[in-house]
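Whether sequence alone determines local backbone shape is best considered at the level of individual chains. The sequence in question and its structure tokens are set out directly beneath this paragraph.

===
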Amino acid sequence: MVNLKNALGADELTDKKAGLPRGLLAEFLGTLLLNFFGCGAVVTDNVVAIGLAFGLIVASAIQGIGHVSGGHVNPAVTCGLIIIGKV
């Protein structure tokens, strides 16, 4: 049986080498970029430009922070993966 403390990732909170603050900062920046630039693209009336802006910012955020935190760019996905023990 899996230890609940390890399954929830509680050991990462005390491990200095895991880089939890770095991962949290990367996820925060990725989500910030997505919301800022994606929602800022709604200023234009062109639906294609809005979709292209969202697509490019998601691709850029994942490319930029993916190696640090997994590149979820969605706090709900990250919390769900922590609960099931995949992070």
Notes: The helical segments are 4-7, 10-14, 20-40, 47-69, 75-84. The chain has one domain: 4-15+25-84. Residues 59 and 71 are 10 Å apart (CA to CA). The chain has a mean pLDDT of 82.
